[in-house]
Design brief:
Length: 265
């Protein structure tokens, strides 16, 4: 399911990445959340008859994701942002794992990072234990597949009180509900890093909202600070190593990773 608002720049690449999956039973539901780009977004949606989509006045991304969750017809649901892409074969890998282990509620995998041109971005997926998610937010909803029936029966919708970090808070609630998670050690999606994404434009407000999430869920702030300090020390050693091994280019790439890990988190 994809919410879109003025998303014509990357929408077509996302649609094609889902359409070209080798699993035959895929519903790609897209809700146009009141785009104001002179019909550019709607024009792209109209080019693909296999899509299930509609437009309506703007309500915000998380209200739109809740609407899509309620309207979806499949049992497994994944929320893809308009600037995300699926890796070829991702859905087949997930479905096969679900069929092998039918007691699972959630499967999540790794992500690849790309820039605005679709080229590899110098940022690595952090493979960390599930329990550490509130501290590192290392799971992306673009590589997370959940049983829709579980979400509906337990009313596990996105909290629209948060404008920018409801997906972070949502995954914490999935954990608190003791759903059965499984990590699939495969890259399932690509996340695009660019200047216009919400993380880059509203990082100050996002930090404030994230602090509210930590308080609302009673997550230990001392532990947050301790993990951040440890991660910073590791990054500092990585910076020195990169400078020694790859010179200024290595230093530049490491500083870019540091910027996205600590300033835009």
């Amino acid at each position: 399911m994809t919410p879109v608002y003025n998303g014509s720049a990357y929408l077509e690449e996302l649609i094609v990445s889902v359409r070209d999956q080798d699993y035959p039973y895929v519903e790609h539901l897209i809700i146009d959340d009141g785009s104001t780009d002179n019909g550019a977004t709607v024009g792209i949606l109209g080019k693909y008859p296999h899509l299930r989509w509609w437009s309506r006045p703007n309500q915000g991304q998380y209200a739109t994701m809740n609407e899509g969750l309620r309207a979806a017809q499949g049992e497994l649901i994944c929320f893809l942002s308009v600037d995300d892409m699926l890796v070829p074969g991702a859905i087949t890998k997930v479905v096969n794992l679900y069929l092998s282990y039918p007691a699972l509620d959630i499967i999540y995998g790794k992500v690849l990072f790309i820039d605005q041109h679709g080229e590899p971005y110098p940022m690595a997926f952090r493979q960390l234990p599930l329990w550490s998610y509130p501290y590192f937010a290392h799971i992306s909803h673009s590589s997370l597949y959940v049983r829709r029936s579980v979400l509906i029966s337990r009313s596990l919708l996105f909290c629209t009180d948060y404008k920018y970090v409801a997906d972070y808070e949502w995954i914490i609630r999935l954990m608190e509900n003791q759903l059965k998670f499984h990590f699939l050690n495969e890259s399932l999606s690509k996340i695009r890093k660019h200047d216009q994404q919400l993380t880059a434009r509203f990082h100050v407000v996002m930090k404030e909202e994230k602090n509210r999430v930590l308080k609302d869920h009673g997550i230990n702030r001392v532990a947050i600070a301790s993990f951040a300090l440890l991660d910073l020390v590791i990054s500092a050693f990585s910076t020195l190593f990169s400078l020694r091994k790859s010179g200024l280019r290595g230093l530049k790439l490491t500083l870019q990773r540091w910027y996205h890990k600590y300033w835009l988190r």
